Amino acid sequence: MIPEADVDARIRQLAEKISSDYAGKELHLICILKGSVFFTCELSKRLTVPVTMDFMSLSSYGDGTKTSGVVRLVKDLDESIENKDVLVIEDIIDSGRTLSYLMKNLKQRRPASLRLCTLLDKPERRVKKVKVDYIGFEIPDEFVVGYGLDYAQKYRNLPYIGVVELEGEKD
Ligand code: IMP
Ligand code: MG
Hints:
22% of the residues lie in helices and 32% in strands.
């Protein structure tokens, strides 16, 4: 769906925009495991502001392509985000359930500011409203893999965004 060169070029643009928006500040990145690892690395390497990082793991999907609808906090942050300028880095926003839960949860911890950056956005599938500050690509309603995104834990390491064609299964 999106070739490697296009993903890389877009990440460069996002990094420039974020660096200029946060000029003079320190940025605390929150990488949502596991899917956002690749995006977080590529993006953070290109940021020109000082960066700190933390990791969090949530789960709302089973092993396949269908959501269970229930968000579970699997691993919490190591550090407090109080008074920090926080940018959450996500791989994809689909129904919005995960991020709507997460952003509410993080807001209660009183960061100085809280924004959200996602590599991919599937707006057609949204059931929970989420405010997204930085979007890499808006994509149609297809199940994608690569650049951190998995299908049953596979294909995360693909350097491009590909579409999974599921035989005889309709979401
Ligand atoms: P949401 O809570 O429905 O927005 O789901 C977000 C999570 O579902 C993402 O962080 C992914 O882990 C997973 N997900 C949603 N769509 C896809 C997809 O097309 N490919 C791989 N994972 C997906
Ligand atoms: Mg994910």
